[in-house]
Design a protein that fits this description.
Elements (H helix, E strand, L loop, with lengths): L1 H7 L5 H26 L4 H13 L3 H10 L3 H11 L5 H19 L3 H33 L5 H66 L1
């Protein structure tokens, strides 16, 4: 039974074992990133409108609490701006830039690993084909037999399985990377939009307070 099974799925091939490990790692990375990025997204416009509504009513502490309890980079940007809202403009912008510099690498974590797995999987598949060919030729050399139809079919079958599985890992990795990269770009856009909006709101409020103080 094992011989029949291994004839079409070369599990004893070292390249196949590597591909299986890479595929499991790839799926775990994709699942972890999907969960993380899903939890990092809020609708920035609705969230910002809700926070501004609280600020206009003078409920600054409640607005800060909403930011702290909300997930995502947009909430973190707004929270940082509220904490530093009484600081000079340059110091406020510097604080927001520091938040972005810390958060963007967290959003992009594992994406390069996913892309690397996708790139090397076909190469490992072809290396497995060379390993199968080497074993086949060694068997012919030491047994002094001709290439029978069964040997050729077995070699071709294992080669096809190795190359095909390598491309399966490759395609899965490429699709996953494209999807996750798009989600990350969207989160970065949300971060930039929230940063711009909260800075404009604070600048307008400061101008109003300055004008009121002068009157």
């Amino acid at each position: 039974m094992w011989k029949v099974f291994s004839s079409w799925l070369p599990l004893t091939n070292f390249a196949m074992l590597i591909l299986l490990v890479l595929f499991v790692v790839l799926l775990s990375y994709v699942a972890e990133r999907c969960l993380f990025l899903h939890g990092s997204r809020v609708k920035p416009r609705q969230f910002f409108d809700g926070v501004v509504s609280l600020l206009k009513r003078g409920r600054h502490n409640e607005a800060l609490t909403v930011c702290e309890s909300s997930p995502g980079v947009a909430a973190l940007i707004v929270k940082t701006a509220l904490v530093f809202r009484e600081k000079p403009q340059r110091e406020l912008e510097h604080a927001l830039d520091n938040v972005a510099l810390l958060e963007i690498p967290l959003l992009e974590r594992r994406l390069n690993s996913i892309r690397l797995i996708a790139k090397i999987a076909p190469i490992i598949g072809f290396m497995g084909v060379l390993q199968v060919l080497s074993k086949t030729l060694d068997g012919i050399k030491y047994t002094a037999t001709y290439l029978s139809a069964g040997v050729v079919i077995s070699f071709v079958r294992q080669a096809v399985v190795l190359v095909s599985f390598g491309f399966v890992v490759n395609i899965t990795g490429i699709l996953a990377y494209s999807f996750l990269h798009g989600r990350v770009r969207r989160l970065i856009y949300d971060m930039e939009w929230s940063r711009s909006e909260i800075l404009n709101y604070i600048a307008i409020e400061n101008d109003k307070n300055t004008a009121s103080a002068e009157v």
